[in-house]
Design goal:
The complex is a heterodimer of chains A (626) and B (295). Chain A is α/β, with parallel strands linked by helices and 626 residues long. Chain A has 20 helices and 22 strands. The N terminus and C terminus of chain A are likely disordered. With 295 residues, chain B is an alpha/beta fold. Classes of the chains: A alpha/beta (626), B alpha/beta (295). The complex binds thiamine diphosphate (TPP).
Chain lengths: 626, 295
């Protein structure tokens, strides 16, 4: 505000801010700054949604979380995405507008319902949000879910910013009801996690329509499904006509040398790089407005298609006999960015590279990969597994970080729930040469692990399954699930009992262990691997970050007693780093008491017993307390 | 590129409050009448990883991403992150770097040289790049004001000194977004940040001589009964008990000479000796030999 070189462009006066009431960062009463996810949720609110359901997964999670405090919407987590879509479809048939949210790989899980929901159509509006993750910021793959719209024959809208995210959501519900079809909204990390200005509207009320039984529409036995197939194709033809006049299509720019067809975040990158260029921005990207594109292409010399990931629009456009260029200049791998788009247009010969825009690389700095937190209850079982020398089929969650050094104790990680089935197969192969152990988080077990365990029982597989029950879905920020006894909206409910569930499935060797007791954890896992047939070990310490921060008296190193053996560092705890003091030329260690949770793991690992609790008298808690 | 769009990058480590701070910046910019876009990455990065947020503003903003080499301000809540993100700053731009250090355990992995891979606090790493650098110690300033947890507001104050937005907008945004009950201390911290003094450059860490090679592990097989204690305690996984209960040195180069195995062996079957000074000299003194775990 003083010594700035930034020009003063503040001309608008903003009225007095209202006191914040919810999660929305209100800047004025009706103009707010929202993330793409919050804007989708807001759109659902304004569209009069009554049931919103999903399973957490980055970058989709905050859609439901941002409206969880509303008492006029039933907002829920399901155990997995298929159940979520089933719930949403059921609600829609019951006659209320329903929203289902998931990350891109979640739609794989829900795909079975998704494909046939395109046949049944809906009762009241049904909108499914798929949040894709090009560049794999937090995902195991970067599949392009725009392909699902085409495979299922479901119309798809793609917002490019927060304002459009809200607009698309409201429109999606209208399309859903007008055309009697589920509608897919596809976002990406950069749309979901980008905040932008949104103008708020009011919530529409849609009374519950009630269920109208119609077996020929809702009972998809072959005889009835055959009747729905032509309905689906006819609907797609009508949707294609609607796409031609979609209010989401925006044409801008001048010139006839070349034009660009684009959608989603790529639109903003193109405008960043070529602010004046002719651009046809699409919001409804399935079915494509082919005639609109054809007319646009006829008004320009060259037609470029700029889209993240696969050449999906490009292929459709070429298949319609329109000449277009795309993936030969813009990569199919990873995220686009203004820099990447610029390079593509330079390669295409429509932009001249400006020399001197490439700054020096950063000086060398330290790698900072994600880590298990200090006090993470997942660490001890993996220390034990490393010592045991097992083949570990892993799964997806915070514990997947055990695959990284120094634990380096996980051999596979594919898709949620895969650990158990893969362990069954690994044991069946006879090729492991070591005990086979599946490790799976509690949320992941509820999501897709139960059937795997049923198979282990069914096939009497010689495997151990470690259920890492930290009482939350930690990786995605600490969401409730059917095992936690609490709902997304904070109500207390019945928790699924893991031991009872495993017993009912027919597992005879089940051991619950406190992972903060390293010896007991080791012994429990060793005994389980010795058991013939499927065995289950359940670790039962809560996550140290959610739902509550767990902080016990921190530990410290008695420097004079430390022999610098580094045994404690084998746990990879972020609170333990090297000291400047040495012993026989090796570095001693210190513990950061500000981040230590007092889990005692390092003290259990320390051979000379040099790690002890910080003395009572020095504890700030004790000093400040009464 | 739209020349009237400005960019700012905030960087830090998961858990430091980068996302909240950037929401305050974005909120203040909206109050000042700008179009604003703010982009961050959630998920894996929050688990102690590097966290960053891009903020762009102007009459009309397209890309939410700040192109490399164009940010007018980089504010880093942690020293190594300032180094990581400095290429985003334009020539003549400003870097506000907190001298707070958060050393990841991976920086303490090279047990041959015993040198950490954490970059030294050396202002020239930034200043060599034709930009203005301001090293601050926000935690010290906030502690002096009575609450270390207001440190991020000190950093915001330092940012505000270089961004053309009325002080009242900043303060309205802070009031709305910080936890209730901490408004006053955060406002005080913000105002202190406007004028915050340059942090003194800390003295460089002492050099570590390390040692010149792996230690020698000698096993008296005739005294060893294969009980497995040594192999379980070895922090470097140097020892392995075979299926015939014989003890083998499976990873001799990794021995750091901690002598845990020697000390804990109930049968005195292991002895560790220091490396001969001629062996491997240099080869193991090279810092930074270990491989990156990320990117
Ligand atoms: C099909 C699918 N849905 C959602 C996700 C996102 N996701 C990654 S890990 C995870 C849950 C992890 O919870 P849990 O198994 O309890 O382990 P924790 O992180 O608590 O250790 C989720 C939801 C995903 N990768 N795949």
């Amino acid at each position: 505000m003083k010594t700035s070189s930034i020009p003063d462009t503040s001309t608008t006066t903003v009225s007095e801010p209202v006191v914040a009431t919810g999660n929305e960062p209100a800047v004025t009463e009706s103009v707010v700054l929202l993330s793409g996810n919050e804007a989708i949720a807001r759109g659902a609110v304004e569209a009069g949604v009554l049931v919103a359901v999903g399973y957490p997964g980055t970058p989709s999670t905050e859609i439901l979380e941002s409206i969880a405090d509303r008492n006029d919407i039933d907002v829920r987590w399901s155990p997995n995405e298929k159940v979520a879509l089933d719930v949403a479809l059921g609600a829609s048939l019951g006659g209320v507008r329903a929203l289902a949210t998931m990350k891109h790989v979640g739609l794989n899980v829900a795909a079975d319902t998704f494909m046939t929901a395109a046949y049944t159509g809906v009762g009241a509006g049904l909108v499914i949000v798929s949040a894709d993750d090009p560049g794999m910021h937090s995902s195991q793959n970067e599949q392009d879910n725009r392909a699902y719209a085409r495979m299922a024959g479901v119309p798809m809208l793609e917002p490019s910013n927060s304002a459009e995210a809200k607009q698309c959501t409201v429109l999606a519900f209208e399309i859903s009801e007008e055309f009697d079809t589920p509608v897919l909204i596809r976002t990406t990390t950069r749309v979901s996690h980008n905040r932008g200005i949104v103008e708020l509207g009011t919530r529409a009320e849609h009374p519950v329509k009630g269920f109208a039984p119609d077996p020929a529409k809702y009972v998809m036995v072959p005889g009835y499904a055959r009747g729905r197939r032509p309905v689906l194709l006819d609907r797609l033809r009508r949707l294609a006509d609607r796409s031609e006049v979609s209010p989401l299509t925006v044409e801008s720019g001048v010139g006839s040398e070349f034009g660009v067809v684009t959608s989603g975040i790529a639109y903003h990158y193109v405008r960043e790089v070529l602010p004046e260029a002719r651009i046809l921005k699409l919001g409804m990207t399935y079915p494509l407005p082919i005639e609109r594109i054809r007319a646009f292409s006829e008004s320009v010399g060259r037609l470029f298609v700029v889209e993240e990931l696969d050449p999906i629009m490009e292929n459709d456009i070429k298949a319609a006999g329109i000449a277009a260029e795309g993936k030969s200049f813009f990569p199919q791998i990873g995220e686009l960015s203004p820099d990447v788009v610029r390079r593509g247009f330079v390669a295409a010969g429509v932009l001249i590279d400006q020399p001197g825009t490439h700054p020096d690389p950063a000086p060398p700095t330290v790698a900072r990969p994600p880590l298990m937190c200090p006090g993470c209850p997942h660490t001890p079982p993996f220390l034990a597994l490393k010592r045991l020398g097992a083949v570990v089929t892993g799964d997806i969650g915070c514990y997947t970080l055990a695959a990284l050094s120094p634990l380096a104790a996980m051999d596979t990680c594919l898709a949620m729930g895969s650990s158990i089935g893969m362990a069954v197969g690994m044991a069946a192969s006879g090729g492991a040469g070591k005990p086979v152990v599946a490790t799976i988080g509690d949320s992941t077990f509820m999501h897709g692990g139960i059937q795997g365990l049923a198979d282990a029982v069914y096939s009497q597989a010689n495997i151990t399954v470690i259920i890492l029950d930290n009482g939350t879905t930690a990786m995605t920020g600490g969401q409730e699930h059917p095992g936690t006894g609490v709902t997304l909206q904070g109500a207390t409910t019945t928790a699924v009992d893991l031991v009872g569930l495993c017993t009912a499935l027919g597992v005879t060797h089940i051991k619950v262990v406190d992972p903060y007791d390293l010896a007991a954890t080791y012994n429990a896992i060793e005994a389980a691997t010795a058991h013939v047939g499927p065995a289950v070990v359940i670790t039962n310490r809560p996550c140290v970050e959610a739902p509550m921060k767990v902080r016990d008296r921190p530990y410290a190193v008695i420097s004079d007693a430390c022999t610098a053996c580094q045994a404690c560092m084998a746990a990879g705890c972020p609170s333990i780093i090297w000291s400047d003091e040495t012993y026989e030329g090796r570095r001693k260690v210190i513990i950061d008491s500000a981040t230590c949770t007092g889990c005692t793991l390092c003290a259990q690992l320390c051979p000379p017993l040099a790690i002890v609790p910080v003395p009572l008298i020095a504890s700030p808690v004790e000093v400040a307390g009464v | 590129m739209s020349d009237n769009t400005s960019g700012l990058v905030l960087a830090g480590v998961g858990g430091q409050g980068v996302v909240m701070a950037s929401m305050i910046v974005a909120d203040a910019l909206v109050r000042a009448g700008h179009d604003v876009k703010q982009s961050e990455v959630h998920g894996m990065a929050q688990r102690g990883g590097s966290v960053f947020s891009h903020i762009r503003w102007g009459p009309q903003v397209d890309s939410p991403l700040v192109p490399v080499g164009t940010a007018s301000v980089l504010a880093s809540f942690e020293w190594a992150e300032a180094i990581r993100w400095v290429p985003y700053v334009r020539v003549g731009g400003v870097v506000i770097a907190d001298v707070r250090t958060i050393v990841p355990p991976g920086a303490c992995a090279d047990r041959r040289s015993w040198t950490t891979r954490y970059p030294e606090i050396d202002p020239s790493l930034l200043l060599d790049r034709r930009l203005k650098a301001r090293l601050i110690d926000a935690a010290a300033t906030a502690t002096a004001l009575g609450n270390v947890r207001a440190a991020n507001s000190v950093i915001l104050g330092s940012v505000a000194a270089f961004v053309d937005v009325e002080q009242s907008h900043w303060e309205a945004s802070i009031e709305r977004l910080v936890p209730r009950g901490t408004v006053d201390v955060n406002l005080a911290a913000f105002r202190a940040g406007l004028e915050v003094a340059e942090a003194p450059t800390p003295a460089p860490a002492p050099e570590h001589r390390g040692f010149s090679g792996p230690h020698q592990i000698d096993i008296r097989q005739e005294w060893c009964k294969g009980c497995d204690i040594c192999s379980r305690v070895c922090p470097e996984y140097c020892l392995e008990v075979g299926s015939d209960a014989s003890l083998n040195v499976s990873n001799p180069d990794a021995c750091t000479g901690c002598r845990l195995c020697e000390l804990l062996c109930p049968d005195f079957a292991i002895s560790i000796s220091a490396p001969r000074q001629t062996a491997h000299v240099g080869a193991f003194n090279e810092p930074g030999e270990i491989e990156d775990e990320s990117d």
